[in-house]
Design brief:
Blueprint (H helix, E strand, L loop, with lengths): L18 E7 L6 H23 L18 H13 L12 E2 L5 E2 L3 E7 H14 L6 H12 L10 H15 L5 H12 L6 E2 L2 H18 L8 E2 L1
Parallel strand pairs: 2-5
Antiparallel strand pairs: 1-4, 3-6
Helix pairs in contact: 1-2, 1-4, 2-3, 3-5, 6-7
């Protein structure tokens, strides 16, 4: 008899080559702010690079961007990630709720997304490049200027803070798959768009453990709230 069971989430054949399915928690838009700041930084660096190529100076060294900042490689990855992540944040009531088994309270919403593995790797590498102690002084000044714009939501927003946020976001997107994440991914992918999703006891336990792992990466252990209704 042929086994027609669906492939296990995350196994070969379920996710296209070069892509990975990840769980993204709704953090009320917090991850988007550093990602948008990074987009602006990379747009500026791309402009500087273009200007140097069009108008090479005779008395100045051309700007040499380290990988993956050069040739807008990181910029393209960041823009793809922004497009994919934006709908998962600050979701309204029309997006459907993630409810506890008894339906008495709402869990932190999560979305199963399939993203290019290379984009996640590029985000991590970009954070490392911008945080390098020998980063070009002009680039470091540019990063500091854009990081300062995050000060409304974060204390002492500087290059170190921005790099830390970007590295933590890359860590969330690179969360190692477990039986818990596979169980949640299967449930979320099966739910009709916009419909409430009532978790089973096993799924709620998996959600709690996965949220705890995410907390330790993004918020250093502070809680992702359960929302009463």
């Amino acid at each position: 008899m042929t086994d027609h069971a669906p492939p296990h989430p995350g196994r070969r054949g379920d996710t296209p080559a070069g892509q990975r399915t990840v769980l993204v928690v709704d953090l009320d838009g917090e991850p988007l702010a550093p990602l948008r700041a990074l987009e602006e930084i990379l747009l500026c660096l791309g402009t500087w690079e273009d200007d140097d190529r069009r108008h090479p100076g005779t008395d100045t060294e051309p700007l040499r961007l380290p990988p993956p900042l050069a040739d807008r490689a990181a910029l393209a990855a960041v823009q793809r990630l922004l497009t994919a992540l934006a709908p998962t944040q600050s979701q309204g009531s029309g997006c459907g709720r993630l409810l506890a088994p008894d339906g008495r309270y709402e869990q932190a919403p999560m979305t199963a997304l399939t993203l290019p593995t290379a984009d996640i790797d590029l985000l991590s590498a970009t954070a490392a490049a911008l945080g390098h102690p020998r980063l070009n002084a002009d680039i470091a000044e540019l990063v500091d200027a854009h990081a300062a714009q995050l000060a409304g939501g974060y204390r002492r927003a500087d290059r170190t803070k921005l790099v830390s946020l970007l590295a933590r976001l890359a860590g969330l997107l690179d969360l190692s798959p477990t039986d818990d994440t596979r169980l949640l991914t299967t449930r979320l992918q099966a739910a009709p768009p916009g419909a409430d999703c009532v978790l089973s006891d096993a799924e709620e336990a998996a959600h709690a453990r996965t949220a705890d792992r995410m907390n330790h990466i993004w918020a250093h252990g502070s809680g992702i709230d359960r929302y009463l209704y």
